[in-house]
Design a protein that fits this description.
single chain; 453 residues; alpha/beta; six-stranded parallel beta sheet; five-stranded parallel beta sheet; 19 helices; 14 strands; 16% strand; globular; disordered C terminus
């Protein structure tokens, strides 16, 4: 049974508590990474048989396999994938950043250049629980960013094949390099490369504890999107909300993982009681009942507040991955939300809409990291370089200022690197205020310039 708490009678620690159960897999993951680094493809074949129960002849999915798999996918689902992809493209294309140049001072040009990350690896959870939505949400922003080389790693089924829905989504996105490898070994292969799998510059995508730990360990060797924790949902609902829908929304995240978190905050005690009863009722017919029930029991809670202002305060402190505003006027609350991964507005906007179809990304910051992190976006697939250009006259004009600043930090070589460009101009070198001569006596400026040379 989900816990019901009254805000006024509950400690802040209990209100803000998250599930703490965590398995330390760091040693196992470290061993897997080292094995892949040392043995390459051989290790991947071995782990595929050990962890996935699949004996495969080739790590890479062939073009024939892709076409064959797509033929088994319902035409209706293919159309849904295409429509969802269009919504995702429409949203993410507006995130594209442009390079810029500033030329407002004589002889001075500064700017920023946007460059796509060249090689990107997408990790897609697979096996019996396939996530074609992850292919869309990770692949489309990478394509929009202009990444030249994008590949997917995903665990195979026991028959050695990839779930057709994942291959169909890859086809829609336009990704044709797909590898039959999952878990920490997949992350290792992308980070270091093997005979078959190319080394990438960035790895994105969700996964279990082993995948998350592997991403943590290879960070620095490659870039990663984030370390994702268990899925979570926070619903803020008023008295006019439908208890059946609210309960269903909470269970939509609880069924992800036994460690997932489902929280309702409401200013109506009657709604709280109805939702608690409805959760028990819906659990009885839920296919993933065991998972959802454990999640609700360990990490689920309903918090009853005096008003919605208190609910907003709690939400900002929790910084949830998904936040639903099931209230009469959700836009009145939007500006008050400071910390949330993705916000779902109104009574007809369930979180599941964002998982598959609406357009905004479903790869979101978890475990309170929405306080300082953002959803996956096109920005995650580009890098920024800045540049500076000065003419000789422009540098001469401010050279003493830069040199003075450098000397204030005790970095004389920095100062000299500026002044050396004007070594033939005696007026600069004989200037007693020139920081090059601070605390030094040079009777012959040319002698000093010789040192600089």
């Amino acid at each position: 049974m989900i816990k019901i708490m009254k805000y006024a009678k509950t400690s802040p620690e209990e209100i803000l508590a998250r599930g703490t159960s965590k398995i330390d897999v760091s040693k196992t993951v470290s061993e897997i990474i080292n094995e892949v680094r040392n043995k390459g493809d051989e290790a991947l074949f071995s782990y595929c048989e050990k962890f996935d129960g699949a004996k495969i002849e080739s790590l890479e999915v062939s073009a024939e396999e892709i076409e064959e798999a797509i033929k088994t996918v319902e035409p209706e689902f293919l159309e849904i994938l295409k429509e969802a992809a269009e919504n995702i493209r429409s949203f993410h294309v507006r995130q594209v950043r442009n390079s810029f140049i500033i030329n407002e001072k004589d002889g001075v040009i500064t700017g920023q250049k946007i460059t796509p990350i060249e090689k990107v690896g997408l990790y897609v959870p697979g096996g019996t629980a396939a996530y074609p939505s992850t292919v869309l949400m990770n692949g489309i922003p990478a394509k929009i960013a202009g990444c030249e080389k994008i590949c997917i790693t995903t665990p195979p089924l026991k028959n050695g094949k990839i779930n057709p829905a994942i291959l169909a989504a890859a086809k829609v996105v336009g990704i044709d390099r797909i590898f039959k490898v999952g878990g920490a070994q997949a992350i290792a292969s992308l980070a270091y490369g093997t005979e078959t799998i190319p080394k990438v510059d960035k790895i994105v995508g969700p996964g279990n504890a082993f995948v998350a730990e592997a991403k943590r360990q290879v960070f620095g060797q490659v870039s990663i999107d984030m370390i994702a924790g268990p899925s979570e949902i926070l619903v803020i609902a008023d008295k006019n909300s439908d208890s059946i829908s609210v309960a269903a929304d909470l269970l939509s995240q609880a069924e992800h993982d036994k460690k997932a978190s489902a929280v309702l905050i409401t200013d109506d005690e009657t709604l709280a009681e109805k939702v608690a009863i409805e959760i028990e009722k819906q659990l009885k017919t839920l296919p993933r009942r065991e998972i959802a029930e454990k999640s609700i029991e360990d990490n689920g809670k309903i918090i009853v507040t005096t008003n919605l202002s208190q609910a907003i305060e709690i939400a900002n402190s929790l910084a949830p991955e998904h936040l639903e505003l099931c209230v009469d006027n959700p836009f009145d609350l939007l500006d008050k939300i400071k910390n949330a991964g993705s916000i779902f507005m109104g009574r007809y906007c369930p979180e599941a809409l964002g998982d598959y179809f609406a357009g905004p990304n479903h790869t979101l910051p978890t475990s309170g990291t929405a306080r300082f992190s953002s959803p996956l976006s096109v920005d995650d697939f580009v890098k920024k370089s800045q540049y500076t250009y000065y003419t000789d006259k422009a540098l001469k004009k401010i050279s003493k200022k830069v040199a003075f600043f450098a000397e204030k930090e005790g970095l004389s070589a920095h100062a000299r690197s500026v002044e050396s460009r004007f070594r033939d101009e005696k007026s600069l070198l004989k200037d007693d205020k020139n920081p090059l001569f601070k605390n030094k006596e040079y009777t012959n400026p040319e002698e000093h310039l010789g040192e600089m040379r």
